[in-house]
Amino acid sequence: MGIRERSSPSRSTLTSASSLRSDGYYLECRKDAQCECNMCKASITATLDLRQPFKPSAKENQPWPPPFPCSSPIPSSLSKKRGVHTLNSFSYTSPRLRKLRFRDRPFSLFILLLIPLVLFFSVPCLISFFSQTYFSYESFESLAQASFARIRLVDQLDLIQRHVSRISRSSFVSNCTEHGDVSWRLAENGNLVHSKCVIYASPVERISVWGSALMTGGILGRSLVDRSFTVLSGRVVEWQEGGLESITHSQGSSWTMRRWAASAVLLDSNTWILEYKRTLASTGIGDLHVLKYLVVSAMKKVAYNVKLYYDTALFVRMKELDPLSNRGVSSDDRQTPT
């Protein structure tokens, strides 16, 4: 038996095999071995025949053109389909979005309606708990009667301010005795034009003096709280709601108006009235009647504003369509006096 000489492999065969091995083709031949297997040669030949020759072209370096020009808008059909697909896929697969959709449930509407009611009933209780009332309707009348020890109105107001500051232990008491003080304001309550100065105000109670140097009259509108009045000077003629006879309140007289009550009053010249009332926080703002009154008042105000807006718009529209209003009088149509 003769020893078979190993023939040196050709350069092309090694190059093809190395390129195939680098390309990931599995051959049962090691790199340092002489591949004489017919199966390997046939596999290499068949693989080389199937490969296309590499032809570099300039088109590969060019970017792909956009599907739509930048100037033209995206078709609505594609945008709608894409948006709907994204929303549906995300809404049903994402648990975070399912939590965000909690507001679409009926229970969320109940929570949104419950929060204002809780605040409406709880806030007044907290205010009345942390605030203190220093006066009552009886003590206020006693304070007003004690002020008549002074003759002049300025001295009476000065005495009242001193007593209020001492009882309430507060330095935030307005000085209503100086002329031209900024504490005085021109107010209009129920078409009753008057000047008003707030002597003491807290979250639970308020003391003020109001009146007019001229004769005036109007309506003392309804209020959500009781009010106590004392005439410091002048005279007040009152017509209560539901009554025919008038009631005259002279200097030094006091009376109380219950909440929901209204009356017409006539003030003589130089009439000044001392008023005391408590706020809604101390008198039970949580009353359902108060809530009903506030809601009805707000709805009436909104309805009045809407009606006024539509009436104004209708008037302007009719003014524009009226041919007689737009036609001016020419110089030929004017009649000269004879």
Automatic annotation (TrEMBL):
GO cellular component, one term: endoplasmic reticulum membrane
Protein's recorded name: C-8 sterol isomerase
Keywords, comma-separated and alphabetical: Endoplasmic reticulum, Membrane, Transmembrane, Transmembrane helix
Similarity field: Belongs to the ERG2 family.
TM segment ranges: 107-130
Subcellular location: Endoplasmic reticulum membrane
Domain of life (superkingdom): Eukaryota
Pfam families on file: ERG2_Sigma1R
InterPro entries assigned to the protein according to its UniProt record, in alphabetical order: ERG2_sigma1_rcpt-like
